[in-house]
Amino acid sequence: MAVLSPSRRLRRTVFSDGVEAAGVKAYTVYNHMLLPTVFRSVQEDYHHLKEAVQIWDVACERQIELRGPDAGRLMQMLTPRDLRGMLTEQCFYVPIVDETGGMLNDPVAVKLGDDHWWVSIADSDLLYWIKGIANGWRLDVLVDEPDISPLAIQGPKSDDLMADVFGDAVRNIRFFRYKKLDFNGTPLVIARSGYSKQGGFEIYVPGHDGIPMALWNALFEAGKKYDVHAGCPNLIERIEGGLLSYGNDMTDDNTPHECGLGKFCDTHDALGCIGRDALLRVAKEGPVQQIRAIDIDGPAVGLCDRWWDVTANGKRVGRVSSAAYSPDYETNVAVGMIRMTHWEDGTAVQVHTPDGVRDAVVREKFWK
Amino acid sequence: MAVLSPSRRLRRTVFSDGVEAAGVKAYTVYNHMLLPTVFRSVQEDYHHLKEAVQIWDVACERQIELRGPDAGRLMQMLTPRDLRGMLTEQCFYVPIVDETGGMLNDPVAVKLGDDHWWVSIADSDLLYWIKGIANGWRLDVLVDEPDISPLAIQGPKSDDLMADVFGDAVRNIRFFRYKKLDFNGTPLVIARSGYSKQGGFEIYVPGHDGIPMALWNALFEAGKKYDVHAGCPNLIERIEGGLLSYGNDMTDDNTPHECGLGKFCDTHDALGCIGRDALLRVAKEGPVQQIRAIDIDGPAVGLCDRWWDVTANGKRVGRVSSAAYSPDYETNVAVGMIRMTHWEDGTAVQVHTPDGVRDAVVREKFWK
Description:
2 copies of one chain form a homodimer. Chain A is an alpha+beta fold.
């Protein structure tokens, strides 16, 4: 493992004091901000996430706020997903594409009103793209990064813990919907969402002083009876569940269709989307390579910090971008981009890890 | 020191194999890419940089390429620096501002021709802003991240080492100019520039295979007689020299004038610059806070990983964003943003470090 040199540029979050007190062991950098990656061990965190409940500092999912008469129009320019039917209090996972259909980010859009949106971003300065588009197209909209820090509550006991702090109303929040519920007299946006398949919530926590650490402490206090621990997005669990990571599994070289995100694209109807023309052809005929689950034989693979080639009969047919050993499925679970000649479920391939070539099988579905 | 979890998203560079073999001890993340921060120790690297010559993997200074009939017009839209007199083979340090005059990046622009530019960026996805502007204003220009990785040669013996590898022509390259010189039959853009005050060059190395590590190895081989070592931007040396760091010392909250970059702004004449209207007032009247060198009393301060308040008579008058103990100047050198009431040379202030309050003095000039 490498050592990370601290600096102000790698921003601390409003929860960093809590994260340190909870014994964080490692970080990554995400949107110029610290994101914890390990507390006890990746494996121990994994088992606990599936059994209990965790509190995650995901303040690095920075928000971009769109506000003004053209906010809705701008939001539709950014994505091939048709937003016309979207209601206030809904959250939509929205691939964001440039004029060539290349992925720039895969955030969650939160509709606070027809003229008011938040975009909860993955790791790229999407603010710059949205500000550039708003300026160039002279839209009547304010685009900014508000002082809001998401805090995720994830795991099977999330509903119980959240109900103890916010009341039973939290149990009625539907998947990818939000409600505003009070904490110490301040209404907070609470969505049923999060970067795991174990269920839970994301709380959009405003400000720097007062609320963030008071909420953090209240959740840990209430969570004692549920064996609450500090946690973070878990490499193993997110691969099992097929949750993609922008920058790892996809870049601006990829279309949403290659990323298996075609179901979030209504390219024909997404009038106004900047990438629509470029995507119409691929929307009709389909991509020639696509994200797949890949099952890698043998003992636990090492950390995947660069693309691993995937070959068949000595010819390159794809590459792996994320991989980890799954204790529950007793195999190495992986994510990769595979060419259409070899993406059928059950296709045998080889994966070139730094420790040697391994047999592997392409799967159509993720594990969970 | 924290541990960094490797992943593909934190991109390795074309020189990473060499960096690892040279014994890198720590990294930061810069433009989603690994940037070494320590080889032997920050202090040992510092002394060596001032005495000998170092080879720096600064591939993370990613390039943005503008190419096409509107490339020059687009470049001028991005910056308040007047580019009309700029010649091919020149490099300009260019503050990049948004429509409010807020700094988005402080790159070096390299003019390859009237319709062909490279922008060598600091740590933000400036590509997204430039692509958004180009799209919104419907400019006739291609904007992309080419496969080019800067390699810096820094230190007083840089000319000798470079002459051994590229011939004596390299000695005639003027400051912030470049020439194309051959390496193994491939012409490389070599500029006299770099993120230190010790002199040296930046080589714009194309591609992934072949040239990058061949050049790295050739430089180390030729450099033996100059005591060459792998190095990296040095925290102490860059503060002594007043080299600012985007994200540390300035953000999009700041105008170039606040950052002491007024000399790179020709706001009145920079017709077409998107931030011109917003900057005209501040260009005329001056900013109310400005970057200053700050001399902090007492023993070596700890790592500055968050803003440290600067106060006078109990009132906040600024904040420190970077600090380190300087062996050569036998004091703690620091960079901070100071309000105009207290920015005069010699003003006594207090700096609130995590280890306690220290007496400090505001300086108008940096140490070197």
